[in-house]
Amino acid sequence: MELNERKELAELLFPNIKHDRDYYEKMYPDRNLKEGAMVTRFGPSPTGFVHMGSLFGSFCDAVFAKQTDGVFYLRIEDTDQKRSVENGIEGIFNDLEAFNIVPDESSVVGGDYGPYIQSERTEIYQTYVKDLIEEGYAYPCFMSEEEIAQIREEQELSKIKIGIYGHYAVDRDLSLEEIKEKLCNKEEYVIRLKSPGNAENEIEVVDCIKGRMKFPEHDMDTVLLKKDGTPTYHLAHVIDDHLMHTTHVIRGDEWVASLPLHIQLFKILGFKIPKYAHTAPITKKDEGGIRKLSKRKDAEAKVSYYEEVGIPIEAVKLYLATILNSNFEEWYLNNSDKSIEEFTFTFDKMAIGGTLFDLDKLNNISKTYFSRKSGEEVYNETLEYAKKFDKDYALLLEKYEDDMIKFLSIEKDSDRPRKDISKYSDVKEEFSYAIDELFYKENYAKYDGGKQFSTSLIKKYVEDVLNLEATNEEWFNDIKEFAVENGYAASPKEYKKNPENYIGHVGDICEALRVMITGRDKSPDLFSIVKILGKSRVLERINRYENLTR
After folding, report:
1. What's residue 121's pLDDT?
2. Parallel, antiparallel or unpaired: strands 71-74 and 39-42
3. Among 46, 316, 337, 361, which residue has the fewest nearby CB atoms (within 10 Å)?
4. Quick check: 85 pLDDT over 70?
5. What average pLDDT does this structure show over 320-338?
6. Integer-rounded Cα radius of gyration of the chain
7. Could you tell me the domains of the chain?
8. From residue 70, how far is each of 88, 245, 256 by CA, in Å?
């Protein structure tokens, strides 16, 4: 088809397109950013929620843009309307906001490179396709679904590549008159790429994560515009990444196979090709094997899961950082005074293969996170969580606010702060003894040591010896002296040397006191707990223990 015929065809197919591509090139000028600044985008379908894989993707996009003083934008890719749900965009934005991953530009916050919803950019895509028609890189294809299915069946039987290419692209060389006749007959059509590629040739792409990769050239006549005039993902994202000046396309490696097509589209459209970084899939162990984390099978794949179980948002982000860069965890553990924003992430420290999602590791990261928070911060965050998910506990937290902050502050200033909390719901479990109503309800059910203790000696210690004004060292010296005076060894080591000389050792007295006032044999610093409870509550609990064990 000659140039004048192609121009006529372009006007025939797109009579309502009044602008040319130069119009949009001027509308979306280069961004005024410093050298090296990254422009990244998160492009979800409006399905209404963000799953862990896409949360990780958006986290990567945000991190690299922010640390280079670039731009991170949210682009809703709704070209497949079947995947759209009511209020889907709002749900995605809310999920990102909950994790403090807030785009610099989006349909919600605005920006100079919108619209940020692909369905609102249809005229832009059609303008560029009109141009491709004129240049001979695209054509209308009138093949029916039945014809395409028949070709596929033939290719499968012949065990050759599946798709529309070569002589299977039957409408590729229709004349202008033949096309006009089909249009007059109201035959439906799509617009296909007239691929200039040859699969016998090879292209090389340097991926920021995977390094050098080689592929056969793309030679398929891929659909660019669907029958309703809306674009396919392949076309839309190439035009958008160009006009929005995306510098780095960070996406899951399920898109690696599409790279030859995308590179080809960038080239025939005359666009600068952005850098690509294909991230490894997030996987999990399952029945002896490893599979991709599934939003249908795995509760932890949904980001709402973490709020519901009480794992802090920041702890989840810290864990995502360990997935993003293999050297982050060591840095975080060695830099207790620094925040995640102070770490420099790089592509060369990202996994090439699968990344195992480990809930145990997440819990450990979360414990470290909690250990670095003050008692008051833990209290306030737990209260907010309880108000939403455990209203009865929230009322108790408010009633015992002063005590709870003191309990949660125990050992916070030590060289090795406690790591007994991995989620907000753990506070109720680990510190139930801090609240009388919960402690009495438990009735020592949490103690599984199997021992029964005599209360008379412990009462005597509390009534006659316990000094709440003492230092920790003075307190322990007092209890050791009391132990010796009552036939106990001053240390376990001394007791082991001559067990026949003693009733037990000082540790037995401490254990008895701990069980009686906390209902368990392990707890934070015992004297700190005693001081917070005070003598009267301590004696009340000892009496209760006595009544229950008679």
Report:
1. 97
2. parallel
3. 337
4. no
5. 94
6. 33
7. 3-21+122-279 (3.40.50.620), 31-120 (3.40.50.620), 284-371 (1.10.1160.10), 373-440 (no CATH), 443-550 (1.10.10.350)
8. 27, 11, 25
